[in-house]
Design goal:
The protein is an all-alpha fold. The chain is built from 4 helices and no strands.
Length: 148
């Protein structure tokens, strides 16, 4: 087990150093140029790091979950299926309206996808606030019952 922790530490250190090098390179190249290459490189690196993090969480979490609970895989598939249904419903309900104040309009598919992401953000944010409020109410009721 110690060998894996050493490997993980070295990989993390390598990714950190590579991230700093990419950031410094983008800074030296310049962010204010019209070609926006530095910004694109930073975006692509961010996408790669987020993808790597998600893949790591899914693979390691899945391996540990299946090892501890044989029904874990079915639970995860149910969550992924439910999420896919919610995203599909939000996609179908998103209007794909024209962007205001832009002379050159993006494609209809881009507008639809942008509206979908915005609506998903609103939905998740609203549900988060609602769950905080409901959680506090439930905790208060439980504490009041225990105090009696």
């Amino acid at each position: 087990m110690k060998d894996y922790s050493k490997i993980i530490k070295w990989v993390l250190l390598g990714l950190l150093v590579l991230s700093v090098v990419i950031f410094i390179g983008a800074w030296i190249y310049g962010f204010e140029r019209n070609d926006a290459v530095a910004v694109d490189v930073l975006f692509y690196w961010t996408y790669a790091m987020v993808g790597l993090a998600l893949a790591s969480i899914i693979c390691i979490g899945g391996w540990i979950g299946v090892k501890n609970d044989k029904k874990f895989l079915w639970k995860i598939l149910a969550v992924i299926g439910g999420t896919a249904v919610v995203v599909l419903v939000v996609y179908l309900l998103s209007p794909g309206s024209e962007a205001l104040g832009m002379l050159e309009q993006p494609s209809k598919a881009t507008l639809k996808l942008t509206d979908t992401i915005l609506n998903l953000t609103y939905l998740v944010g609203g549900l988060t606030i609602l769950s905080i409020i409901v959680g506090e109410i439930v905790a208060g009721v439980r504490n009041k019952k225990q105090a009696k």
